[in-house]
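Supplementary Methods S3. Input chains for the assembly prediction are listed below.
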Amino acid sequence: MKILGKITILLCGSLLLFFTSDFPDFGDANSPASLHLSPYFIEHTLEDTAVPNVVTSVLADYRGYDTMFETTVILTAGLACFLLLRIPKRAVKNRYYLHEPTGVTLRFEGDKYPQESDVFKRIDSSWVPYDIIINFTCRLLIHFIQIFALYVVAHGHHSPGGGFQGGVVLGASVILFAISGNLRAAIKRFGEKTAALFSATGVFIYAGTAALCMVLGENFIDYAALAPILGSDRIMARSHGIFIVEIGVAVAVMAVMIWIYYNLSSAGKQDEGL
Amino acid sequence: MIFFDRASNLLSDLPAIVVTVPLLAALIASGAGWINRKAPFIIAIASLFVSFISSILLLLQVTSTGVVIEYRMAGWAAPIGIVYIIDHLTALVLVLISSVSLINLIASKRRIDDQFRNKEGAFYSLYVLFTAGLIGMTTTGDAFNLYVLLEIASLSGYALIGLGSNRAPLATLNYLFLGTIGATFYLLGVGYLYIATGSLNMADIASIIPKMMNSSMILFAFIICLTGLLVKLAIFPVHGWLPGAYSESATVAASLVAPLTTKVTIYIMIRLCLSVFTPQYTFQHLETTDVMVWLSVITIVFGAISALSQKDYKKMLSYIIIAEVGYMVGGFFLGNKMGISGAILHIVNDAAMTLALFMVAGIFLWKTGEDSRESLKGMFGKMPFTMAGFTLAGLSVVGVPPTCGFFSKWYLILGGISAGQYGFVAALIFSSLVNAVLFFRIFEIAHFEPFKEQHPHNDHCDEQHQAKSHNEIIKEAPLDMLIPFIAVSLLLVLLGLYSGAIVNNIIHFVIPKGII
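Predicted structure tokens for the full assembly:
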């Protein structure tokens, strides 16, 4: 069976290699891909959508319908992780507490636990003592990471960036917080319900904006319909529309990343974890 | 006046409504599940209903005017933006998807609430997303957009069937690996097409391909797209994921995924061969008929023989599905009018039959808590209506007139004869005989063997906890499960009686002119 698998892989690989011989040269200006549609996008982006970044306009306007569903794919992944992994709260067998004044670690069995307070601090069973340097550095960095993320979202129009990248950076900042401290602290600040609602809301901002264009009498996702609401002309409205959906994408990507991290890192219990 | 403007506007927006209403509903349902546990069901069913009505309207519009409907997403015209194209075939498959999804949701509410407690929001949301993905795949006129929607339908499908018996996660993992390979192959093919033609729009690609029939890039794109779809179809050497994935999963999910996934993938295959690669390329230039028909003959025979050796009801159904996939792939690649008509008609019929058979599996499981054939002893006496519907569904799979299964097989056999593919005809008849053996064996057990009072425990089955206690007398299924099921089984007869109308009014318009 293993040999059969290897033969299949070899066959596929050699087929792939064989058929690349017909490819146009790298960067060939006369290849069909650079002659057929690309010139239109390059030449008309600015006059059609008032967005200087061709990638952004193709992604969120010409092919904005694809991107809406790509965002939905991310939400689907979050929902799938939740549906398959999440285990409703059940009593954890043993809990470990740190008695701060004496520095003693106590193990509690059964269902009587001390109140979380300055004296008793809950720690994970596989607890590694918090490193003050890591903790402090992360706390210092997180703000800047988040500000940079907002910059990436907002500057998708002009430079590389946009909702997906900005959302990932935003999500990473919360995950960094969870890793440098513990999962419960992160969940306390950015709860599971918040993550779930944000991820649905993010995609809803995108799909809702698109549907609003339809309600206003244009085609689905035709941002030009938003012109009266945004108070701009129809071309500028496309640019603004792209920005609105980029924000939706960022919110969705951030929340889904955090949600998936919570479920994966704690095997669905969302109690003890990384 | 404004009202009429709105109404006509709404009518022209139908192609967008049919897919975006479920999408928006899925988003709202996943959020609403955290606030109210009853809301997701209502939202899901309302959106599927809207989708169902709009697909019926689209079908009426297409059949009455005969004009292909085009809808421009974001207002951009064809090769630049993404367009939705609705022709006769699309509209037919749309009605199929939305009705199967709606009926199954009504019939399985009780079991979903039982099995997915506290996760209703996520479940209903994925359920509707799955439907939206399939609807989008069907309507889209853009090869890459199809991949994106394929991703949605596949991902939500994996999640839906991932919960069930103890072995469900492993079976789903298998499905996920092979499904991902299939989807990736398709994507690779679209990449090759883009390199060769510079376009992603299906009609645009189809207009370019005749000029470059001999390009090896197009050839490889065709091979790899088709291979990807065949993996997703579970054709013979790559069928391994299907039986496990459909039989181990929760029945509510299986009865949605099993009737639709393979059937919609067949539709995609047909669409790809006819509307992207053009029939001249598929049938005349490449002469795919022999290879593909023999592949499907092997699949049919393999599916039939494997189904014979199964004790578990749902596993048996899964192998029957594999055989039916062989019917449709083979029928399409016969490349003549009868064969293609039969394959398309069988998409509709097989979806309805599979739905009925999985719904009945759900009812049995709800009642007895077991999956094996033996648990059906004496059921005819206890559940006369359910068993009557089951008999209809079984007869339809066997292919007894006037049920719908007979008519599509009739077309397929005629197509096989006129194409001179007698192996295919023999495989069809063989598999029908095997189906007869399979179903009459079940009818016999259910009719003549005395009812077994004590149902032994079955630890492998997670759904078992729903079963009523042993001593409680088994009666007819609850009405909310029974009525949709009876409706579907009557539909099998109706589809059979009106199959001539479907073929003449819808399917004949699909078949391109060059094909006799």
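Residues 165 and 461 of chain B are 5 Å apart (CA to CA). Chain B touches chain A through 58 residues (CB under 8 Å).
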